[in-house]
Design a protein that fits this description.
Rossmann fold, 2 domains, 7-stranded antiparallel sheet, 5-stranded parallel sheet, 10 helices, globular, SGNH_hydro_sf, Lipolytic protein G-D-S-L family, GDSL_Rv0518-like, signal
């Protein structure tokens, strides 16, 4: 135990010495939640804001570490954000106060994110980090929806409190790792966010892919989820379009080697009025090319995910289906992407190809269910992540 304590102290000291820290270890995102503007679609009796509540998040980390840092975001908030009583608890059960440049209480102006001071918390890969923070409020969450547990006032929230899907404030957990993994970013909309996955089961396709990669190449990769419900490629919707958020949600992350991009359904559908048609295939493809080019400038491989079928959903029409087919043909055949994940082929109904298989899709005929998310993750060729000369090459699909 004494040796481990000395090692942790040494790593904490090296954090303040960039040159040495880079030689000894590296920071990697162990979990992320992309910033997203506050939602106002809750019913009047259950608004989606917080008022004198403590929010508890139990976060499963994709990177083993002895030191972690939290990132709190108000980058897309609509008002200044005040939080206090932020704590973090690792597997040892010790509740540790979280400070930001030494301060316990934090105030974030609009457009700002804060990184916590390093926390000496040991967590194995796949281990849980429990983060609690108090929102005096009234305020609203400003990252994508995540599973949280809520309590009144500043009292600790029980581990068995009701789990709900809400926007929160933690946008990332960074882990200091001696054997830094390669970072895979899943970039998309609600299908990537896992909006209809069983709450708390980590059944979204990026989580399933992360488990596949870990089983095939232990410690070699971490998959982080940059999905945002309603996100689009060409235009802004509820959140900034994927091109506008690329720097913040992908390029700012240390260690990214691969991005899996599956977006466009929200672009090509009509807006509820069939007369207001969605974006064309050419517009979506042009946006894809921009994303690919910008990622390639940073040496990042881009895997294109074909758009899944959504026939039978409320904003489906023949025009959007023709556009989907044209975009998917580009993804499969253009060679613009470094690899292809054919989610469409894996999930569509062979007898009615404009729809997903009944046992893979939810009642809205748009979002996969848990089995559908698993099918998507299984459709990704793991060898796309390990080029010749790197670890686990040729062994990933065993």
């Amino acid at each position: 135990m004494r040796t481990r304590g000395v090692a942790i102290a040494l790593m904490l000291a090296l954090v303040g010495t960039p040159a040495l820290a880079q030689q000894a270890s590296a920071w990697r995102p162990a979990w992320i939640a992309a910033p997203a503007p506050p939602r106002f679609d809750g019913p009047p009796e259950a608004p989606l804001g917080y008022l004198d509540q403590t929010i508890r998040q139990d976060i499963r980390l994709g990177v083993a570490a002895d030191v972690v840092r939290l990132r709190i975001s108000n980058e897309v908030g609509l008002e200044p954000l005040a939080l206090d009583t932020v704590t973090a608890t690792g597997p040892d059960g010790v509740v540790r106060p979280v400070t930001f440049s030494g301060a316990r209480d934090i105030a974030l102006p609009i457009g700002v994110a804060l990184l916590s001071d390093p926390l000496p918390i040991a967590v194995e890969r796949g281990g849980m980090l429990s983060v609690s923070l108090h929102a005096p409020g009234p305020t609203r969450g400003v990252v994508r929806r995540v599973p949280v547990r809520l309590g009144e006032g500043v009292a600790p929230v029980a581990a068995d409190a009701l789990l709900v899907r809400r926007q929160s404030f933690v946008s990332a957990v960074y882990a200091l790792s001696e054997d830094a993994p390669r970072v895979v970013v899943a970039l998309g909309d609600s299908i990537t966010e896992g909006a209809t996955a069983t709450l708390g089961a980590e059944a979204d396709w990026p989580s399933v892919l992360g488990r596949r990669l870990e089983a095939a190449c232990p410690g070699g990769f971490v998959v982080v989820n940059a999905g945002i419900s309603g996100n689009q490629v060409v235009r802004d919707g509820r959140s900034a379009n994927v091109r506008a958020r690329l720097d913040r949600d992908v390029l700012s992350l240390p260690g990214v080697t691969h991005v899996i991009l599956i977006e466009g359904i929200n672009d090509i559908r009509h807006d509820g009025n069939p007369a207001n048609v969605g974006r064309s295939a050419d517009e979506v493809i042009a946006a894809y090319r921009q994303v690919i080019s910008r990622l390639h400038l940073h040496g990042i491989k881009v895997i294109g995910g074909t758009m899944t079928a959504f026939g039978g959903s409320e904003r489906f029409d023949a025009r959007s289906e023709a556009t989907r087919q044209a975009v998917n043909t580009f993804i499969r055949e253009s060679g613009a992407f470094d690899a292809v994940a054919d989610f469409d082929a894996a999930t569509r109904d062979p007898a009615q190809t404009d729809q997903m298989q009944v046992d893979l899709v939810g009642a809205d005929r748009l979002h996969p269910n848990d089995k559908g998310y698993d099918t998507m993750a299984q459709a990704i060729d793991l060898d796309a992540f390990a080029p010749s000369g790197t670890g686990c090459h040729g062994d990933l699909d065993r």
